[in-house]
Amino acid sequence: MAQREPVRTEHPNTWSAAAPEGYVGFVLVSAGQAIGRDFDRRLGEIGLRLTEFSTLFFLAHAPGIAQAELARRVYVSPQAMAKVLPELERRGLVERQPAGPGLAIGARLTDSGIAALERARPIVEAANSPMGLGLTETECAELLRLLGRIETNAPSPSADDRPGPAVAGA
Question: Is 92 part of any domain?
Fold first, then answer.
């Protein structure tokens, strides 16, 4: 019987010089997830989830947007958006109208949806304030500039890419 090689339990030496905190992308994703969890918790106090808020936010800026494009903007799969919209409609926050065979279903905010966005405003503003982020106004402006540059230089997602979680303050 052939003898098996032992399983390595240590990381390769090539990774030993850099902890995860040394990788900008890792820290960026980690910070985004931490902010997203806190944002989701705060929104929960007014009966919204982050994905629901993001959906309402983008519908406020683009009423009637196609469901697939809405899903892309909210960073969820089209299948997830197919669950979010009916729930928001059931709660009276959006209304959807079929546009005809083969055409996208248009969704728009109701008065209750607009009111929900207004209830979320103080939460969004607090979560996005320099003080809420632990930054000075100058640092916040610089971070926004740098993040914009990263976003501009990031590769465009392909049609096969799966979107990630909604972003705080999106």
Answer: yes
Nearest-angstrom CA–CA distance, 15 and 144: 30
CA 137 to CA 76: how far, in whole Å?
31
Examine residue 143 and state whether it is found in any structural domain, yes or no.
yes
Q: Could you give the count of Cα atoms lying within 13 Å of 43 in the half-sphere of its Cβ?
A: 26
Whether 168 is in a domain gets the answer no
Distance between CA atoms of 144 and 130, rounded to whole angstroms?
A: 11
Q: What is the CATH number of the domain that holds 87?
A: 1.10.10.10
Asked if the structure places residue 7 within a domain, the reply is no
Residue 84 domain boundaries: 48-151
E-only strand ranges, 24-155: 94-97, 106-109
- Cβ atoms 139, 47 nearer than 8 A: no
pLDDT per residue, tens digit, the chain (170 aa), is: 566 666 555 655 555 556 777 788 888 889 989 998 999 999 999 999 999 999 999 999 998 888 889 999 999 999 999 999 999 999 999 998 766 666 666 789 999 999 999 999 999 998 888 988 889 999 999 999 999 999 889 887 654 454 444 444 44
Counting the structural domains of the chain, the total is 1
